[in-house]
Amino acid sequence: MCKLEKFNYALFGNPIDHSESPKIHNFFSVQTGILHTYKAINIPLDQFSSVVSDFFKKNVKGANVTAPFKKEAYFFSNKLTERAKIAQSVNTLKKINNKCILGDNTDGVGLLSDLVRLKFIKKNFSILILGAGGAVKGVLLPLLSLGCSIYILNRTVLNANNLVKQFYKYGKIYVFEEKVFKKQNFDLVINAMSRNTKKKNFAPLSLISSKTFFYDMNYSTENTPFIDWCSKIGADSISNGIGMLVFQAAYSFLEWHDVFPETNYVIDALSIN
Ligand SMILES: NC(=O)c1ccc[n+]([C@@H]2O[C@H](COP(=O)([O-])OP(=O)(O)OC[C@H]3O[C@@H](n4cnc5c(N)ncnc54)[C@H](OP(=O)(O)O)[C@@H]3O)[C@@H](O)[C@H]2O)c1
């Protein structure tokens, strides 16, 4: 017997058409018997606050937020979880006491869960992160909490500097500077640049070994430019971000329904589509 939820859920972003989140939440809904409705809504860039306020006036209990609105969702929230407060970035909203909006960030726990599933992470790893956008803000705290040393390489150095200023009190985090960096093999390279960013070299080859793991936060049924590059340089351990997407959705589902859905078969189903 399915439990019929009377509340609606949504994902807000711009653009939104590539999103697999409605499909994932549909899997969770069928699996758990919690029949919530979940749709992707594209919002004009200057209308986040007004559209989401109107949405929450209706029969709504929660929402996800994706690029470029995670910072706005942080300011929109009346209360924040500790991890969202530290990240200053929100991807999950939940109505509490029928009036207040709680902001959470499940990107970090989502990425970490997938890295653990893949056996791509250990305590004290040395990690190179490519990019310094909203997604990186969400994932730094759990990686730093594992004692990892994190180096940020970003097109706009100022944005990497700002991230280091925001997070240095939580662990070992540095701006990656090729000229001054001593030769060291990274254990893990994470790509967090925008989906279709093409580059000849994503990272200096001198910093990579045959044991390095490569993770692309982006996901697509076809190879992303980063995954193509990893294959070209002969990397053995490569993954795209579909697992992170499923896990961050599962943690949002847990926030809304107090139920953690089964994730592995959803990852498998999305990986072969
Ligand atoms: N799998 C998942 O669950 C998951 C979760 C979150 C995000 N993501 C994916 O992760 C990616 C990043 O998301 P985000 O929210 O952090 O986006 P964002 O805030 O827009 O940040 C984009 C990042 O990409 C860099 N960039 C953009 N175009 C570039 C170019 N041509 N050359 C070099 N660098 C470039 C930006 O550098 P500047 O600072 O120089 O602008 C910035 O660091 C997105 O594609 C998103 O779909 C996946």
Automatic annotation (TrEMBL):
Domain Quinate/shikimate 5-dehydrogenase/glutamyl-tRNA reductase positions: 124-196
Pathway: Metabolic intermediate biosynthesis; chorismate biosynthesis; chorismate from D-erythrose 4-phosphate and phosphoenolpyruvate: step 4/7
Enzymatic reactions: shikimate + NADP(+) = 3-dehydroshikimate + NADPH + H(+)
The family this protein is said to belong to: Belongs to the shikimate dehydrogenase family.
Subunit structure: Homodimer.
NCBIfam families: aroE, PRK00258.1-2
Protein name as annotated: Shikimate dehydrogenase (NADP(+))
UniProt organism field: Buchnera aphidicola subsp. Rhopalosiphum padi
